[in-house]
Amino acid sequence: MSIAVGNILEGVVTGITKFGAFVELPGGVTGLVHISEVADAYVKDVKDYVKESEKVTVKVINIDDSGKIGLSIKQAKPDYKPHNKNRNNSKKRIKPSFSFEDKLAKFMKESDERQQDLKKNTDAKRGGGKGRI
């Protein structure tokens, strides 16, 4: 049986690591189910979800140039719905309520007020200001 991306196959878990589980597929080839592809929920320990020698249904999600096979248990389930990673990009952009000119005018006004306050404070410390003629 040939193994191609998208195939759903039965396999046997042959090893478990902290980053995933190795599954032997028909034909004696082995693939890896990464920890992120074990379940829809957060997986802290792969051993909580699969055991060695357990039969599992997996989906082939990639085969790289060196022949390594990437597998997924969660994508092999019939009720799997992929998450839309671009969901935030689909929202319409909200136009700013102030134009650049409005923001610049506000900044200039606040800046002038700060400069006047600073000048008053420094003049008072020097003994200048209202008493001088």
What does this structure look like?
The chain is 20% helix and 25% strand. The longest helix has 27 residues, at 100-126. It has 133 residues and is of the alpha+beta class. It has 1 helix and 5 strands, in the order E-E-E-E-E-H. It has 2 domains: 8-78, Nucleic acid-binding proteins (OB fold (Dihydrolipoamide Acetyltransferase, E2P)), CATH 2.40.50; 95-126. The model has no long low-confidence stretch (mean pLDDT 85). It has a 5-stranded mixed β-barrel with strand order 1-2-3-5-4. Strand 2 (20-24) and strand 3 form a beta hairpin. GO terms for molecular function: mRNA binding; structural constituent of ribosome.
SSE order and pairing:
Blueprint: E1 8-17, E2 20-24, E3 30-34, E4 55-63, E5 69-72, H1 100-126
Parallel strand pairs: 3-5
Antiparallel strand pairs: 1-2, 1-4, 2-3, 4-5
Query: How many separate domains?
Result: 2
Major sheet size, sense and barrel closure: 5 strands, mixed, barrel
CATH class of the largest domain: Mainly Beta
H/I helix tally? 1
**Relevant CATH superfamily of the largest domain:** Nucleic acid-binding proteins
Number of strands: 5
Strands in their spatial order, largest beta sheet: 1-2-3-5-4
| Radius of gyration from the alpha-carbon trace, in angstroms | 32 Å
Shape: rod-shaped
Mean pLDDT across all amino acids:
85
Structural category is alpha+beta
**Secondary-structure arrangement, i.e. CATH architecture of the largest domain:** Beta Barrel
